[in-house]
Amino acid sequence: MTDLAKLSATETALAIRERRVSATEVMQAAIARIEAADPKLNAFVFTSFDEALDNAKQADEAVARGDALGALHGVPTAMKDLFDFKPGWPSTLGGIPQLKENIADMKCGFVESMEAAGAIFVGKTNSPAMGFRGTTDNAAFGPTSNPFDTTRNAGGSSGGSAAAVASGMLAVAEGTDGGGSIRIPAAWTNTVGYRASAGRTPLLVRPNAFANTLPYIFEGTITRNVQDAIVSLGVLQGAHPGDPNCHDMVNDFADAGLRGIKGMKIGYSPNLDVFPVEDEVRDVVADAVKVFEQAGAEVEEIKIGLTRDQREYSDIWCRLFVPIMRHSFEAIKASGLDLLSDEHRHGLAPDLLEWVERVGPGYSADDLFRDLSVRSEVFDAYQATFAKYDLIVSPTVTAMPVKNTTDGNTKGPSRINGIEIDPLIGWCPTFLTNFTGHPSVSVPAGLGTSGLPVGLHIAGRRQADGDVLAAAAAFERLRPWAQHYDRIAL
Q1: Is the peptide bond between 215 and the residue preceding it cis, with omega within 30 degrees of 0?
Q2: CATH class held by domain 4-487
Q3: Fewer CB within a 10 Å sphere, N or C end of the chain?
Q4: 22, 80, 161, 394: which is the annotated catalytic residue?
Q5: Cα–Cα–Cα angle for 274, 131, 149, rounded to 5 degrees
Q6: Choosing from 8, 91, 167, 181, which is the catalytic residue?
Q7: Taking every annotated instance into account, which residue ranges of this chain make up the domain Amidase (predicted)?
């Protein structure tokens, strides 16, 4: 109990429950860690420490009364500053300067579920405008730095949460994932980013309640170990009356941390068929995959069956995501602020504006259906592969962490191995399972020759979250990564 920053969320909740430490002491330690480390990382864009301490005091009173306690009672956490809301807290939709005074009047599903489980929110974490890239940087707050090298980016779009967890400010924080935004920063920060099966966890979106299927968008968590991901999924899952796409599923993952994967068939794709991969990423992942054989699984290198150029897939993801952004801009405009006007568009990144203009009103229903047909090809390829294999493992992202820029517009690489890619999302094949809805996780594969983290991606059959988490836990047992956090000096 001498270093609360090193405790997992599960360990913290148990220590509070058993009265070995108070929720107030835990919160005070988290605040001290945030105040010490965040100036070097820029993970948080808003904090509410007084409110958090008041809630911690109430959590201690509940323990003293002998109340029934939730799975994360007294555990500090944070929400992402994007499509995530808590009444009275600001919401800038990813660092849009004109929205700094925009105050939310509703709770998102993540806050509802986590507070019901006893978790206590301390603030909001940094993300890019509208979540429209795999890095975290914006005009209002600037970039979030990587705890392993503060000159480099933490990844995105949930980069603030990943940096906060990796650096020990928190044991668990929110990520949202419409193209890999939980798993991308997890890969770059040596953390676990879990994204559930489509329909297992709710997402409250308005005015269009169905927008979170185009592509599939999720709320989830970033943690330092697999068990915390399992506990968090248990908190978040379940039907919600405000989400027409979410329904109750069998909990197949509660014992996933203990099950093992002996006898499983695993397909290993070193490049998802069509994505160029940096040598450092390729080498670390190729070595990491051997761990599954040690755990008793059968591993075979495979082709998934993707046949189109990688740029076509990433362009389709962008085209499918842009209508969600345009709809948000229209809702903001109705309240009196036109973010796309000449007066206010400076708060949005040039690449975002370019895509919004490219996929304008001229993007027809016929265009949409053509894109969905290609998305269906991806789904069919994954389904055919899962007919033969229990899991698909691959690099989470194809590039190592990039240097931060000073213009609010940090992006990923535009070329890998001489091949041109989209610097926003083209190095993030994570978006493929946002097309398909299969459960996916990024776990730390190891450190590259540069000393920076590399992520290993594990995907499973739809609704088979337990298989994915069992494989992640088996990997963690045989190749633990907690020791790498000792490299972080903040």
Answers
A1: yes
A2: alpha beta
A3: N
A4: 80
A5: 80
A6: 181
A7: 25-469
What are the backbone dihedrals phi and psi of residue 442, each rounded to the nearest 5 degrees, phi first? -110, 125
187-193: average pLDDT = 98
What single letter denotes the amino acid at residue 258?
A: L
CA–CA distance, 173 with 156 (Å, rounded to integer): 14
Residue tagged 């931060």 (tokens): 404
The structure tokens listed for 331 are 């809702």
Does residue 80 carry a catalytic annotation?
Answer: yes
Cα separation, 409 vs 403, whole angstroms? 11
Residue 1: is its pLDDT beyond 60?
no
Residue 35: the pLDDT is 97
Are 203 and 179 contacting, i.e. CB atoms less than 8 angstroms apart? Answer: no
Going by C-alpha positions, the residue among 454, 149, 484, 457 that lies closest to residue 278 is 454
- How far apart are the C-alpha atoms of 69 and 85, rounded to whole Å? 24
In three-state secondary structure terms, 330 is helix
- What integer pLDDT is reported at residue 2 of this predicted model? 58
Residue of 157, 314, 394, 442 marked active site: 157
Distance from C-alpha of 139 to C-alpha of 108, rounded to nearest angstrom: 24
Structure tokens, 152: 């480099």
Q: At what angle do helices 159-166 and 23-41 cross, to 10 degrees?
A: 120
Q: Please, what's the largest Cα pairwise distance for the chain?
A: 64
Closest CA to 213 of 227, 201, 191, 198: 198
Token pair recorded at residue 313: 């897939």
pLDDT in tens, 410-421: 999 999 999 999
Percent of the chain predicted with pLDDT > 90 = 94
Each residue of 136-147: b (16+ CB within 10 Å) or e? bbbbbbbbbbbb
